[in-house]
Specification:
This protein has 289 residues and is mainly alpha-helical. Helices cover 78% and strands 1% of the residues.
Length: 289
Amino acid sequence: MVTPKEQQSRPAAAPAPEPPRRRLDLGGRLLRFAEAVWRPAILLAAVFAVWWIAAEQEWVAPYLVPHPADVWHTVVRDWGSLMHHSYVTLYETVIGFALATVLGLATAVLIAYSRTMDKALYPIVLFAQVIPKIAIAPLLVVWFGNGLAPKIILAVLIAFFPVVISGVAGLRSTDPELLELSATMGASRWKTFRKIRFPNALPHLMAGEKVAVTLAVVGAVVGEFVGASEGLGYVLLLANGNLDAALLFAALILMSVIGILLFVVVEAAEALLIPWHASRRSATPLTTS
């Protein structure tokens, strides 16, 4: 039997070694990135090859599908002008998307928290969505002129609906037991919203945001179709009127680039806001122990 004195004389056991911290592996990041992009890269390369061969063999008239080299020469030749028009479209898109996010989230909160507002606002939101935006674009030009306002308003109108729907779905998907626990603990409605409802709604909301940001580009360009003197929509109309297929394709490619870049920005924001969600687990970088 070991006496207390003998226990005190024994050296203390060494603490268990802490597990090494997980560190980011640059090679793993690059591998994950390569795994994510190689399939679309191959598909894009195949489409480009078919495009090049079809243009080289003149299977399609050049005024319908231009040669890729002609598109490249057009981009190089009109780089300054195209960048200016791209900036205008990007500005209209970002402002419209930001306003749609704020207004859409506010509307979603009203619908989710109030049955009266749900009955009053939801039909109006649905009615506004089903109206073809191209049909009201001339009216907006009459009301607000040919400036930026009609384009931004159209971007808001098109991007608004996905934000509202995803926000309402997220706010209503909160576990009722969590809400009961919050009420039992005496939390205010604002604190419950900030700590429970809003974080729970973020996965749904970010999914709607990714849809909305691409639709905002469409809204801005549709507004430029109706009345504008700058922007990629104006470039498309100008190229179509002059039968300049190379300029038309260049503007379309730049529009696609803007949409992809904005989508990537929203994707990055999602990764920062909800890294804990199941939808982000497959997107986390590889780590080593």
